[in-house]
Amino acid sequence: QVQLVESGGGLVHPGGSQRLSCAASGSIFRHYYMAWYRQAPEKPRELVARINTDGGSTTYSDSVKGRFSISRDYAKNTVYLQMNSLKPEDTAVYYCNIYPPSNEYWGTGTLVTVSS
Asked: How do residues 48-95 score in pLDDT, each as one tens digit?
């Protein structure tokens, strides 16, 4: 029973911060890279950030580099996305998944709306 449950979205003002959480199964944490993806209105889903299995390596899209930070907590089986200096362009539904993503693991995501 693999389950990825995103949470932490909401309305944020430009320049603000938000922390997203993704509760995952232990098997995912043991075997796979984890990643955050997002899909903005009328835009295709894109990779935002990824983290390797031991948490020692992270990669970010150019649009969020320097503002977002992905991390994983093995004790809690949770992946986080710390989002700082948020911009209206960051408005999207955010999803977590393995990397590369599996269609088996897409959930409903969590909506982040950045608006003044």
From this structure: 999 999 889 999 999 999 999 999 998 999 999 999 999 999 999 999
User: In the chain, pLDDT over 90 holds for what percent of residues?
Assistant: 86
Q: How many C-beta neighbours within 10 Å does residue 24 have?
A: 23
Sheet holding 68-73, edge to edge: 5-7, 18-23, 78-83, 68-73
Query: Could you give the C-alpha distances from 91 to 41, 94, 101, 110, 111, in angstroms and in order?
Result: 8, 9, 21, 11, 8
Residue 105's nearest CA partner among 31, 18, 34, 9 is 34
- Token digits for 60? 């970010």
In this structure, is the dihedral angle defined by the CA atoms of residues 77, 44, 14 and 52, taken in order, positive or negative?
positive
**Start-to-end Cα distance in the chain:** 40
